[in-house]
């Protein structure tokens, strides 16, 4: 292999020696930075692929020359613009290239081997006990042992403490009572779902020493929502525990119960976009050298979807928290104690530095101290709790143990921006953000909503604001405006000693005078797998949202959380009568579509459903619709139509986004939209208007992944299916727009 | 499915062609409509750039043409409009053709056969004096012409010329394989190689299959050589001649058999649309050798021969199961036949059930149903008419059955407990709400953008809604309206 010397981590014969050790890791990092970057080559590759892939969105305003070297590859955080820097939207690549060879080649060149992913744990008959009839295990771990895994699993603490993505999972049993006197009968056993797909850094479950500090008392009474185990499951666990207790020689620091969760339907993510998402939860086995030993180790757990990593696996990295991050969090917590008012923390930095990862880590830490935490997502290209294109305020009361698409939720307040970036309407973006901050101050921080009149420190609801990584040109301007609006108490600013171009310029004096500014080390983006692009993350979030079985309710045991078994195009849609239902009409945020052509833009597209904030579902407005005389001789009654910027978009102080929907088809004669959405009827009845932005519906939402489609979809031959074509298209300028960047 | 389709903003190739015609129409009204439709397309997302450039030039020239109409526009404004359209056009064409190392715009333009003065105009518009209106007008005209040559007309390049070429190659093939003296193998193989070099998988349906299904190829011209209702086997001669070729194509393109069979199936029901009459007398020789569009009425012997071919493929595919060199999408064939029951598709269903016990059991009720209606229709009319059932008939029946079933089911449920959950709730709220769930009994899965009948309705609103046109002093006349609705 000619490129061998470009791999950062070359598989060695002694993986045990590499196994994590802070010093060694640092050394590796140093070596890494001196190696020539392989990025230019991958850039070239992407360009080749791009000959088909274009996107109007790729018009990037930022003109930082260095950006062209950033392979957009963020595992967990980045900005929409950035994904186009090199520009290969993997979605598009799949769509536009008939053979996938180019992609395969690209993949091989970027193989990433990270020895840190290997678990520090050796499963055996004396520390893993599983029940034969159900997917339940209990695992005894010693302090500092880790189980790193790919997949998904439910975890409940039985004894001792565990750290997962910064969250301390503690058993309610007192430490003093010893192993043999564990009493499970009278206590709730709460399982937390943990998701670890390889689209992001893998999750590590680490056994840690119990912290005997003052926080502990609070932990005792803060029960974070999770999945309560049924008596039957508890019985199985108690029986397994007896087996474990019979083994005397082992001294366990932590005992955990693990449980499979295939019933949630999560595996469906893999079947939908075969080329892109296949294998995100399951480990590819064929390449493994020590097939036998590996299988033995895994077989001890035998939980579907739970794949612990026991040897170096290509293309995965570990969610590894550096010491500097830990100290930042403890400094923050110290700061927080001194504030009278609820703390507001802003996390900022260039794209691909770890903003979202850190936000999640911080949240998981704080959730042990504060019962509720507010979170504003202002990175609308890759939101933590919603699909892209939305800005939201979320109130959290439980840890987030997985990447965004595994915890898509209905936020406290949402605004529809209809775009992956604030670029095209920065003012509206900032209006919405300002409104969210106002709501936080009014309802959450000191308002009645959560009973927070008291000045009791405990009842403060801190606010975390994650910002977009577009920090050049107009992006930086918008960023400074966010700082002005939010008036943070603390600013977490990422910096990198090696990739200096990624550091923010020094913030203006008027900003740094009041808040504490804490610098934090950037994640080394060269270490991140380039396999999944930000467009893939967006697709996953949208899949998670639209296929969600019940977006509003908390997730229940043994029910389908996602219904991937019924493709969207099979699902029975809602019929919305636009005369009766859309009293406030249809808004178009961008573009210049005349009303006569409106339905051509709306059919088969992704839209936001908007309702009033003072929402009493009313039908009163129906009679108010202005009926022009002209309409009498028109066969089809059009909806009210408000193209922006001639009309201003829905005001954030008067209306909010109820959710997203697909207008899957239109029946103009009956003035009816057929709408697919995970929302409930009660929510839908509050809808007053529909807003279309620039969000595109990826091809995966229009295909049928459950049946053979060699000839067509749902009995309609390919030729007659709208909005897609197998013909490559020819002629000059056949591609959609993309951006050429100067190297 | 071999690959993933790409997303396009138009609903059909027809809509695409319409927009092309509109943008290049002599009528300003149609050109304006073209510009409007392109704006709707742009709003959807991915759209080929050349379409956007064309619309930009057309929009600018409309402004220019009617600059002295209702709304005055200054020459300077026009020059800005044209210049920007030009700059974006030239850059948009050049940029994707930039390789790794920066090349001069002029050299790329030369390679793309773009007049060098286009590049000059772009340069002047960007860095120098704004070009004059005279030059820009000329440039706009020529750019539109250039786009038409390089993009729009490039879209349908092959059909007519290549289809002739393919036809003559297949005739050669037929000649060689019939000739007992020649070195059959070598000469036929040569021909086949030529054909496979000529087309790629995505053109099978448009170029190759139509020729194969013309009279005198897979379906012989002479009625005696064809299959009939009583004898639905293929003549050995026919198989000997054509099967090696089909095998070769199937080997070359994995989707070949599926696409061939699909087109054959569509033919089987093509008489069903419009006048439902099958010509048993077979006196019309309907197929001309030219590729002119086929008449509606297709002779029954032609269709029986198609049935025989499909059965032949099915037989091979059933005989060897997974190892068969013919891999057919059986489910698709089944679904198609069930959705479009007629004499021929019924024969195929029968053939399939004879080979598949499970299937026979599963679709037995449908078969009985199809038979029943067949008989009842025949009794009604003494004509030798084959009854045709549309989707609607079938659905009506299914709907009736389901209604009956629901009635009994409801009765049962009600006797159990009167307070059933969501269904009743939904029904109540459905009465006056703007939101209703689509009637589950009537809902049929269908592609995104289509109604449950698989079709896309007319999505136009009246052009009057857009307010007075920017340039037209008098309202739209009737001619235009007619042209528009003819879409």
Automatic annotation (TrEMBL), chain A:
It comes from the Eukaryota. Residues 22-80, 206-227 are annotated as: Disordered. Gene3D superfamilies: P-loop containing nucleotide triphosphate hydrolases. The keyword Kinase applies. GO terms for cellular component: nucleus. GO terms for molecular function: ATP binding; polynucleotide 5'-hydroxyl-kinase activity. Keywords: ATP-binding, Kinase, Nucleotide-binding, Transferase. Residues 349-547 form the Clp1 P-loop domain. InterPro entries: Clp1/Grc3, CLP1_P, NOL9_N, P-loop_NTPase. One of its GO terms (biological process) is cleavage in ITS2 between 5.8S rRNA and LSU-rRNA of tricistronic rRNA transcript (SSU-rRNA, 5.8S rRNA, LSU-rRNA). Residues 22-32 have a biased composition (Polar residues). Residues 129-237 form the NOL9 N-terminal domain. Residues 57-80 have a biased composition (Acidic residues). Belongs to the Clp1 family. NOL9/GRC3 subfamily. This is Polynucleotide 5'-hydroxyl-kinase GRC3.
TrEMBL record, chain B:
GO terms for molecular function: endonuclease activity. It holds the Pfam family Las1. GO terms for cellular component: Las1 complex; preribosome, large subunit precursor. GO terms for biological process: maturation of 5.8S rRNA; maturation of LSU-rRNA. Transmembrane segments: none annotated. InterPro entries: Las1. It comes from the Eukaryota. This is Uncharacterized protein. It comes from Diversispora epigaea. The lineage of its organism: Eukaryota, Fungi, Fungi incertae sedis, Mucoromycota, Glomeromycotina.
């Amino acid at each position: 292999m000619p490129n061998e010397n470009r791999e950062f981590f070359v598989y060695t014969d002694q993986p045990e020696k590499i196994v994590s050790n802070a010093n060694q890791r640092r050394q590796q990092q140093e070596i890494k930075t001196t190696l020539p970057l392989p990025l230019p080559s991958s850039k070239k590759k992407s360009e080749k692929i791009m000959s088909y892939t274009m996107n109007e969105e790729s018009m990037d305003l930022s003109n930082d020359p260095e950006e062209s070297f950033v392979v957009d590859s963020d595992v967990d955080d980045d900005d929409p613009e950035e994904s186009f820097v090199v520009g290969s939207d993997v979605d598009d690549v799949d769509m536009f290239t008939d053979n996938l060879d180019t992609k395969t080649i690209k993949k091989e060149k970027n193989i990433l081997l990270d020895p840190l992913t290997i678990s520090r744990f050796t499963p055996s008959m004396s520390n893993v006990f599983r029940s034969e009839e159900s997917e339940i295990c209990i695992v005894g771990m010693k302090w500092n042992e880790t189980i790193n895994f790919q997949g998904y699993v439910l975890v409940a603490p039985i004894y001792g403490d565990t750290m997962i993505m910064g969250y301390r999972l503690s058993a309610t049993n007192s430490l003093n009572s010893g192993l043999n006197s564990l009493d499970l009968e009278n206590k709730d056993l709460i399982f937390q779902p943990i998701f670890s797909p390889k689209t992001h850094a893998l999750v590590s479950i680490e056994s840690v020493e119990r912290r005997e500090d003052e926080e502990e008392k609070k932990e005792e009474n803060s029960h974070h929502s999770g999945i309560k185990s049924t008596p039957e499951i508890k019985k199985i666990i108690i029986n397994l525990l007896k087996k474990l207790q019979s083994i005397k020689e082992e001294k366990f620091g932590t005992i955990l119960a693990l449980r499979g969760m295939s019933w949630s339907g999560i595996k469906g993510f893999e079947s939908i976009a075969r080329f892109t998402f296949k294998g995100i939860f399951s480990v590819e086995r064929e390449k493994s050298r020590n097939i036998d030993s590996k299988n033995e180790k895994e077989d001890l757990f035998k939980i579907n979807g739970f794949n612990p990593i026991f040897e170096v696996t290509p293309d995965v990295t570990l969610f590894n928290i550096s010491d500097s991050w830990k100290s930042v969090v403890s400094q923050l917590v110290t700061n927080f104690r001194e504030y009278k008012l609820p703390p507001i923390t802003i996390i900022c930095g260039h794209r691909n530095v770890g903003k979202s990862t850190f936000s999640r880590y911080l949240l998981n830490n704080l959730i042990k101290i504060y019962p509720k935490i507010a979170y504003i997502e202002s990175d609308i290209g890759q939101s933590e709790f919603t699909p892209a294109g939305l800005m939201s305020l979320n109130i959290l009361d439980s840890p987030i143990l997985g990447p965004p698409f595994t915890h898509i939720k209905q936020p406290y307040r949402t605004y529809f921006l209809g775009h992956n970036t604030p670029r095209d309407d920065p003012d509206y973006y900032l209006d919405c953000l300002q409104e969210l901050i106002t709501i936080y101050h009014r309802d959450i921080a000191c308002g009645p909503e959560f009973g927070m009149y008291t000045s009791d420190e405990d009842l403060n609801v801190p606010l975390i604001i994650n910002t977009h990584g577009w920090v050049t040109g107009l992006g930086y301007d918008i960023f400074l405006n966010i700082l002005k609006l939010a008036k943070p108490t603390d600013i977490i600013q990422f910096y990198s000693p090696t990739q200096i171009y990624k550091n923010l310029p020094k913030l203006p004096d008027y900003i740094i005078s009041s808040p504490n500014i804490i610098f934090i080390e950037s994640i080394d983006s060269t270490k991140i797998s380039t396999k999944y692009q930000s467009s893939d993350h967006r697709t996953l979030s949208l899949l998670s949202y639209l296929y969600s079985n019940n977006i509003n309710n908390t997730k229940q045991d043994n029910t389908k959380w996602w219904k991937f078994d019924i493709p969207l195009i099979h699902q029975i849609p809602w019929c919305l009568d636009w005369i009766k239902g859309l009293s406030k009409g249809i808004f178009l945020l961008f573009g210049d579509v005349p009303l006569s052509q409106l339905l051509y833009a709306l059919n088969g597209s992704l839209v936001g459903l908007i309702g009033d904030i003072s929402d009493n579902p009313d039908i009163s407005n129906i009679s108010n619709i202005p009926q022009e005389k002209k309409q009498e001789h028109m066969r089809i009654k059009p909806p009210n139509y408000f193209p922006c910027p001639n009309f201003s978009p829905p005001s954030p102080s008067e209306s909010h986004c109820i959710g997203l929907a697909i207008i899957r088809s239109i029946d103009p004669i009956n003035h009816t939209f057929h709408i697919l959405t995970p929302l409930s009827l009660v929510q839908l009845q509050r809808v007053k208007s529909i807003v279309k932005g620039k969000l595109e519906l990826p091809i995966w939402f229009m295909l049928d992944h459950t049946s053979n489609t060699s000839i067509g979809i749902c009995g309609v031959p390919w030729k007659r299916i709208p909005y897609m074509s197998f013909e490559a298209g020819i002629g000059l300028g056949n591609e959609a727009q993309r951006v050429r960047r100067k190297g | 499915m071999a690959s993933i389709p790409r997303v396009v903003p138009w609903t059909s190739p027809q809509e695409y062609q319409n927009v092309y015609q509109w943008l290049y129409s002599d009528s300003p009204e149609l050109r304006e409509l073209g510009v409007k439709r392109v704006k709707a397309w742009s709003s959807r997302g991915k759209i080929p750039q050349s379409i956007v450039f064309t619309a930009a030039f057309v929009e600018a020239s409309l402004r220019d043409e009617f600059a002295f109409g209702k709304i005055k526009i200054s020459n300077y404004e026009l020059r800005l409009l044209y210049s920007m359209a030009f700059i974006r056009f030239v850059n948009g064409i050049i940029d994707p053709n930039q390789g790794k190392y920066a090349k001069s715009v002029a050299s790329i333009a030369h390679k793309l056969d773009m007049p060098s003065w286009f590049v000059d105009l772009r340069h002047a518009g960007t860095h120098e004096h704004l070009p004059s209106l005279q030059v820009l007008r000329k440039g706009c005209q020529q750019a539109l012409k250039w786009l038409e040559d390089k993009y729009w007309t490039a879209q349908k390049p092959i059909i007519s010329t290549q289809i002739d070429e393919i036809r003559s190659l297949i005739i050669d093939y037929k000649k060689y394989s019939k000739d007992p003296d020649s070195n059959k193998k070598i000469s036929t193989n040569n021909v086949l190689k030529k054909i496979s070099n000529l087309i790629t998988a995505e053109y099978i349906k448009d170029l190759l299959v139509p020729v194969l299904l013309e009279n005198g190829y897979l379906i012989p011209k002479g009625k005696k050589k064809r299959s009939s209702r009583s004898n639905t086997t293929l003549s050995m001669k026919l198989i000997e001649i054509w099967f090696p070729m089909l095998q070769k194509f199937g080997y070359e393109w994995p989707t070949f058999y599926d696409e061939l069979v699909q087109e054959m199936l569509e033919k089987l029901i093509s008489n069903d649309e419009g006048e439902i009459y099958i010509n048993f007398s077979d006196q019309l020789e309907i197929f001309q050798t030219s590729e002119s569009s086929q008449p509606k009425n297709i002779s029954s012997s032609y269709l029986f021969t198609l049935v025989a071919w499909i059965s032949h493929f099915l037989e091979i595919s059933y005989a060897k199961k997974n190892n068969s060199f013919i891999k057919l999408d059986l489910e698709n064939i089944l679904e198609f036949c069930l959705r479009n029951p007629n004499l021929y598709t019924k024969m195929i269903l029968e053939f399939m059930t004879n080979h598949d016990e499970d299937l026979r059991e599963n679709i037995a009720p449908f078969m009985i149903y199809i038979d029943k209606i067949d008989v009842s229709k025949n009794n009604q009319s003494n004509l030798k008419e084959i009854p045709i059932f549309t989707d609607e008939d079938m659905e009506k029946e299914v709907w009736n059955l389901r209604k009956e079933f629901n009635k009994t089911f409801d009765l049962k449920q009600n006797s159990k407990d009167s307070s059933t959950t969501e269904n009743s709730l939904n029904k109540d709220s459905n009465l006056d709400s703007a939101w209703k769930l689509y009637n589950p009994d009537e809902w049929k899965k269908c592609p995104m953008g289509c109604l449950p009948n698989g079709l896309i309705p007319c999505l136009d609103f009246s052009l009057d809604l857009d307010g007075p046109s920017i340039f037209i002093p008098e309202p739209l006349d009737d001619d235009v309206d007619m042209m528009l609705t003819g879409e």
